[in-house]
Amino acid sequence: xxxxxxxxxxxxxxxxxxxxxxxxxxxxxxxxxxxxxxxxxxxxxxxxxxxxxxxxxxxxxxxxxxxxxxxxxxxxxxxxxxxxxxxxxxxxxxxxxxxxxxxxxxxxxxxxxxxxxxxxxxxxxxxxxxxxxxxxxxxxxxxxxxxxxxxxxxxxxxxxxxxxxxxxxxxxxxxxxxxxxxxxxxxxxxxxxxxxxxxxxxxxxxxxxxxxxxxxxxxxxxxxxxxxxxxxxxxxxxxxxxxxxxxxxxxxxxxxxxxxxxxxxxxxxxxxxxxxxxxxxxxxxxxxxxxxxxxxxxxxxxxxxxxxxxxxxxxxxxxxxxxxxxxxxxxxxxxxxxxxxxxxxxxxxxxxxxxxxxxxxxxxxxxxxxxxxxxxxxxxxxxxxxxxxxxxxxxxxxxxxxxxxxxxxxxxxxxxxxxxxxxxxxxxxxxxxxxxxxxxxxxxxxxxxxxxxx
Length: 454
Prior knowledge:
It contains ten helices and 17 strands. Helix content is about 25%, strand content about 30%. The chain is of the alpha+beta class. Helix 5 (about 245-255) packs across helix 7 (about 320-330) and helix 6 (about 270-280) packs across helix 7. The longest helix is centred in the last third of the chain and has 20 residues, at about 435-454.
């Protein structure tokens, strides 16, 4: 799980310092205030990890990528030419990592359950990205790779504090080449140093963390009258949720059952989705069925009420198909994953928007899935506040922010919630001017009543 995040000079964000990331992290605020940019930053790193090109410092993407950001100068804050893109973030490891002495395996060098990564990236004047330095902090030590003065392509290894020292192999002290992508130590590290093999464990931890990040965009695919399933077991839902039915059928074939918490019976993914759709009062029943026996064509059937007839998902309101990929993704990803969501409330009734908060609370508690969402929904926020007041959600498990922008610079304001769910620092203009609208409406009504009595 991601736990802390700092950023400098990315798009509209000049600086973010030590942003706390909780099991449920919510980004609220005005349009074009930088909320989506924070989601895009993590997607950029994810597609960098997935890229086969080891020389590409950052994969800024194209039309086929999760995110397409243009050039390095396009993503730099105010398009500055000589600045540095700097980020630092921490995450918890799925299990404790133990680093042993390569010469004495019984000796433990470092151990820990959390890791921190930091990187500084600039360009060489012709648009080519260069890593100035990268660092991994683990077990009370920091191990890094730093560019030597302004010599492009020549780097040196470092360790802090100096209680640990890298030992060079005999021979000429060659400089190290550039890092692999933005996070990897070059292959020569292991050849040039006798005791640097463990650095590969840090890179692997970085890659594993991003392999467990999943994303669903704000626009969902329209429902279909029938779906073809060729036996695929998708890794995710697709950016528009287009693989949701594939995921349901793959989970069914694997015979998976999902925990609902201690003392409660496990449910299949399809049963869990149906349960939530019923609980949120969208429909009464839900099923995915083959058109004929042994067919690879499937239809999604829903029943609006107990007494109504079954119909295809295409023949009911848009809310069901909009919510379906959100539910499937939250319960399909492996436990301990991180899910990034943009406007999950889009096209949903206010009561269903509120209910989404309960979905996120459930997966965070029972599946240890981290939810990082960007939203405009006051109803979603209010439900989080209510659950805190009811002691069904802890302030330690939530981290809610208001994003605003002024003169092209985004600002991140942590919302201060007390034990009763009250926001102590309610920002001006948060969710528009509802109170002003209500006051103006009341005044207008009173004036009309006076006029009618006169």
